[in-house]
Amino acid sequence: MNENQVSGDPNSVRKAISVNAPQDVAWRVFTEQIGRWWPLAHYKIGKANAVDAVIEPRVGGHWYERGEDGSTCNWGSVLAWEPPSRLLLSWDINADWQYDPALKTEVEIRFIAQGERVTRVELEHRRLDRYGARRDQMREIFDKTGDWGQLLARFARLAEGGAP
């Protein structure tokens, strides 16, 4: 596993990781098993304890957390569903960690085969300017504090056959 960060655009956070898993496996673990690698105890917005996270496998679907009481809290929607190479999600969680369907920042994940058993996963969280005056605060969270890189590392460990 090898993590790299690419930066520059103040309205975007980019992370990349090489995963020792075939492209189709990386895709399935990311999209079908997000509830296994996403740290739901800490990264959730609902009032109930989160027990799962779901990405609905279609354009127009939602991605959300499911609480232990059966409640759901939307995180955004699926804008592009192109297995096993590209996923584009809207991230509609505002700077106060509440669902806001008007926010529409974007998280694009690309799965690039680098041989039969290695996949480079590139993530870009963009349109951070939509946070207005709180853009820099949110960029810091996505880049360092909450860190998409840490989330990708958890995903990679699961995709490689380990525990997140």
Overall description:
Helix 1 packs across helix 4. 23% of the residues lie in helices and 36% in strands. An 8-stranded antiparallel β-sheet has the order 1-2-8-7-6-5-4-3. The radius of gyration is 15 Å and the shape is globular. By secondary structure, it is α+β, with helices and mostly antiparallel strands.
Secondary structure layout plus pairing:
Layout: E1 2-6, E2 12-19, H1 23-32, H2 34-37, E3 50-55, E4 62-67, E5 72-82, E6 86-91, E7 105-113, E8 119-126, H3 135-145, H4 148-159
Antiparallel strand pairs: 1-2, 2-8, 3-4, 4-5, 5-6, 6-7, 7-8
Distance between the termini: 13 Å
Q: Please give the number of β-strands.
A: 8
- Major beta sheet, strand line-up: 1-2-8-7-6-5-4-3
Rg from alpha-carbon coordinates: 15 Å
Oligomer: single chain
* Number of H/I helices: 4
Uncertain runs: 1-6
Strand content: 35-45%
Structural class: alpha+beta
Which bin fits the share of residues in helices? 10-25%
- Tell me, briefly, the overall form: globular
Order of helices and strands: EEHHEEEEEEHH
Largest sheet: 8 strands, antiparallel
- How confident is the prediction overall: mean pLDDT? 94
